[in-house]
Design brief:
single chain; alpha+beta; FomD barrel-like fold; 12 strands; globular; DUF402 domain-containing protein; FomD-like_sf; DUF402
């Protein structure tokens, strides 16, 4: 296992990073895991995670999947983004704000952060092409979560349970 950072660029919010362990690489992408206590940094503060997280990334794919082990309600969040790329110390992507989310407690799927998407789009921090990509990918990922047929969806929960 190797230690990596995931840099998440939010426009206009700045660059956030999260410390992860790279636990696997397969046909679905690269799997990262952050157990409780993993470091993170935001433009306004630093801290450590209070819950385990697993992330699946792949170059060329405009989303990153986050399995979140929140004791108040586990969920799978899809960060719609410009396709992730590798860096010297891990990964980087630009967040396009819309987040399809599946909630384990009731099976509900919703697209969150519409307000952040509008702020980024209307504020000129997102191009028209990026805004269109965000909308199309968010809707497609929401449908994927509703179908629940992809094997990697279950793999993420398994890795989260090991964190």
């Amino acid at each position: 296992m190797s230690t990596v950072r995931l840099h998440k660029v939010k426009r206009p919010g700045g660059v956030y990073w999260f410390g992860f362990e790279q636990v696997a690489r397969d046909a679905d992408g690269t799997w990262l895991r952050a157990p409780i206590g993993s470091p993170w940094h935001a433009p306004h503060e630093d801290g450590t995670s209070t819950m385990p997280v697993v992330v699946l990334l792949a170059t060329g794919r405009p989303w990153a999947a986050w399995w979140v082990g929140d004791p108040a309600g586990r969920r799978l969040e899809i960060d719609v983004c410009l396709p992730p790329s590798t860096t010297d110390d891990g990964w980087r992507y630009v967040d396009l704000e819309l987040d399809p989310v599946w909630h384990e407690n009731d099976g509900r799927v919703e697209i969150e952060d519409e307000d952040e998407y509008e702020e980024s789009w209307r504020g000129g921090f997102m191009s028209a092409d990026d805004a269109k990509l965000a909308r199309v990918v968010a809707e497609g990922c929401a449908q994927l979560l509703r179908r629940d047929t992809e094997p990697w969806l279950r793999r993420g929960w398994e890795l989260l349970d090991q964190a």
